[in-house]
Specification:
Two copies of one chain form a homodimer. By secondary structure, chain A is of the alpha/beta class. Chain A has 16 helices and 15 strands. Chain A has helices at about 55-60, 95-100, 105-110, 115-125, 125-145, 160-175, 200-215, 235-245, 260-270, 280-290, 300-305, 310-320, 340-350, 355-360, 360-365, 395-400; strands at about 5-15, 35-40, 45-50, 65-70, 75, 80, 145-150, 180-185, 220-225, 250-255, 275, 295, 320-325, 385-390, 405-410. In chain A, strand 2 and strand 3 (about 45-50) form a beta hairpin. In chain A, helix 5 crosses helix 6 and helix 9 (about 260-270) packs parallel to helix 10 (about 280-290). At the A-B interface, helix 2, helix 13 and helix 16 of A face helix 2, helix 13 and helix 16 of B.
Chain lengths: ~425, ~425
């Protein structure tokens, strides 16, 4: 061992490492818990040792070790929320009331509300105001055990506002503790100005927005809402290819309401993830199962829009890599509570708690292309941990609507 | 004004009093908010004055007034959770996992699990252990803005354990801040010992349990689970009539899975509430609408059991008095989050936020027979208040899975 400062978390009642890489099929169930576990990490927050407390104490000792006590509680990797629109210009509670009274989400969008409503407000808002909304949302995400979170642009729909959103995400990454990854999602809706010539908007996204986003290194990923009445598969492909040319990896809204073949196209492009998949076809499932692309499922959105649930078990059985996320956004899923997402996923996808946990840890890391850095508790990875005030993993989805977090560790602190 | 100590809460941005008594039909929408409101109460926690800040300052002043500042936030009556099993012997997460994998709730009960599982554990538990579980549950309920809560026995199913549960509820009422009301629910399931002669168990409930509960003044209400395979309407009627003779008012599980006519019978008995009502018939709705009995709806249970939702809008249109509650219990609805219940009710019953709030304030008070004491902010009632960290009422069901409470006041403190 080196002589640098070392931290060790001991007295972990049950340690679920989720080690061994992203999981398919029956592997999702593997938690191989370590009883009386411990974890040691260096001053950079890099994990050095994982094992029983006896094993870890054997390897790290001496005056340079700071000891932390988990009080016999259970520990998992920090949760990863791999699909959110958490940085925005605020509430659309009025549309929630309309939807409760029977108006359809897509009808609100077609009537110029929905994403376009958020876009109006985001254009008016200052970068500071967007940062403010994001900071509150991230504070809540942290309280639910989220240590890494993906946030998208897409409420600008013009170059200036898209850049403003991504700069807000960067500011937040630098000034609060959750590790943020940014997605450029300029093709989130067709702005009113381009209602009659959407291809011109696609050109703007490709020729102006993506190069500027890449120049400022403001995003890691590129997203398109491929949907009936929004962007076609061909438009999506053009945008995603342009993104790839500029180093932005595809992470895409597909097969949410009408199946258009988006999943198949995105798999072919080597997308990191295809997200929603409520209406994924057999062909789509087959393509996904034979790929390294992750299907990111958003059961809270099905609940919130009163839509069917994605055929999760069929996808697991077919061998797809799957993740779960909140989709936290002002219109179709207004919650930061990734623990509640575990509840709705277990109940409505028919998942065991261990499967659902695999899908918000190591598989969610894969959905961000970060499976080498986060998502499990293994030497070399970042010490991102949740200490849970719960007797076992099952209690967390079972007892819902609140947070079971006792403590969160990000990058070792 | 008297010269006793007075407290005044001023700088209330928007004050929703829910005054004017229990509500039916379009009255559910009436919030008549007071802008720049204030509330004054005496040292017993009894409300003296309600109005604009100018009006209240005009009526209370001088050195005997302690001023509190609501910071411009919104204020409502404290929430009332009028149907829970919050005092029990703990987790049934294992059955949650079975249900996620496809086993039906009633099949778990028939196989000797479910309520019988909780009964085994409650019989083994000491009164102190039950108090401990209850205390944790109530601490969480308080964090969601609940100021009055009904808790049932019913995991004893023998005289000794039923009394132990009710004594635990009494201890909790005396040692934590939520106002508790207790329901004797000995007829919650047929215990294994009486599997082959349920009428003998009914006799035990009537001849031994109810008199002992009444002697010790341990309960306010009497409940029966009237359901196919549990208790018949006739058995229920015998038990409820025995309860009435001993001063216990009927509050009853009816029409949850199979409609048996329980609602009609309970209305005839003058029950305070009939609860669940997922499968209520037209005849049941008609009986309810023409009565003072409250239909207490439990949408979180429909969600958690993946069952249909009660026909709430039809009942509103028919003129029924309706309340909402969590049904917090270890098997069919494991949440203290009454704010989340507002979310599922708005979405899946098609309610406006104001309607849902009426159903957890003044109408929930009526479901407990306490509409003269709590449930609205009016002179003479208890100063039970929630100060909300939300821009308006809609935000609370809209943004779900967490608590929007800033501060809770119970009996003026």
């Amino acid at each position: 061992m080196s002589s640098t400062k070392i931290h060790a978390l001991i007295n972990i009642g049950t340690l679920h490492t989720f080690a061994g890489g992203p999981r398919r099929g029956e592997q999702l169930l593997d938690t191989s818990p370590i009883v009386n576990g411990a974890i040691a990490w260096d001053s950079d927050g890099r994990i050095l040792e994982v094992g029983t407390e006896v094993e870890v104490r054997d390897k790290v000792s001496g005056g340079n070790v700071t000891w932390h006590n988990a009080g016999g509680l259970i520990v998992t990797p920090g949760l990863i929320d791999s699909h959110t629109h958490a940085v925005n210009a605020g509430s659309r509670a009025n549309e929630f009331v309309m939807r409760c009274m029977g108006t359809e989400y897509m009808d609100i969008l077609r009537a110029g509300g929905g994403i376009l409503n958020s876009a109006d407000r985001t254009r008016e808002a200052s970068q500071g105001q967007i940062v403010q909304v994001g900071r509150e949302n991230l504070r809540r995400s942290l309280s639910f055990g989220v240590t890494t979170l993906e946030a998208k642009s897409g409420y600008g729909l013009d170059t200036e506002t898209e850049l403003k959103m991504l700069r807000a995400i960067r500011t937040l990454d630098e000034t609060q503790s959750i590790r943020l990854k940014a997605t450029f999602c300029g093709a989130h809706a067709i702005p009113r100005e381009f209602k009659d010539n959407p291809d011109n908007y696609v050109d703007l996204v490709i020729n102006e927005m993506i190069p500027k986003v890449a120049d400022e290194k403001l995003a890691d990923y590129c997203d398109v809402f491929i949907e009936d009445g929004v962007f076609t598969v061909d438009q999506g492909k053009r945008i995603l290819e342009a993104g790839l040319k500029h180093g932005l990896k595809p992470k895409v809204h597909c097969d949410e309401i009408v199946p258009l073949g988006g999943t198949e196209m995105c798999v072919e492009l080597g997308a990191l993830s295809v997200d929603h998949l409520i209406v994924i076809t057999d062909k789509g499932i087959d393509a996904l199962a034979n790929s390294e692309t992750v299907g990111c499922l958003l059961p809270g959105t099905s609940y919130y829009l009163k839509k069917p649930y994605a055929p999760c078990r069929r996808m697991i059985d077919a061998g797809c890599l799957l993740a779960l996320a909140t989709d936290n956004n002002p219109g179709s899923s207004r919650t930061e509570n990734l623990q509640w997402i575990l509840n709705v996923a277990c109940l409505y996808y028919g998942l065991k708690p261990e499967e659902a946990f695999s899908m918000v840890t190591i598989n969610a890391a894969k959905a961000l292309g970060m499976e080498g850095e986060i998502g499990s508790i293994e030497p070399g990875k970042s010490a991102d941990l949740v200490i849970w005030d719960a007797p076992d993993l099952s209690e967390i989805p079972y007892h819902h609507g609140l947070s079971h977090v006792s403590e969160v560790v990000i990058s070792g602190s």
